[in-house]
Design brief:
Elements (H helix, E strand, L loop, with lengths): L6 H13 L5 H6 L21
Protein name: Large ribosomal subunit protein eL39
Organism: Candidatus Acidianus copahuensis
Keywords: Ribonucleoprotein, Ribosomal protein
Length: about 50
């Protein structure tokens, strides 16, 4: 990918990068383990972003 990106695309890529994390342990404890995984978590090889 090119080094120079439009700022809108850069913002979307940054948001996707931040959201691609596991949920904190305190959230699992607070919800009584009803919420264990992050639905936005993805692998860069398996699914591509449409940005």
């Amino acid at each position: 990918m090119s080094r120079n990106k439009p700022s809108g695309k850069k913002n979307r890529l940054g948001k996707a990068m931040n959201s691609n994390k596991a949920i904190p342990a305190w959230v699992i404890l607070r919800t009584g383990a009803k919420l264990k995984t992050n639905p936005l978590k993805r692998n860069w090889r398996r699914s591509k972003l449409k940005v």
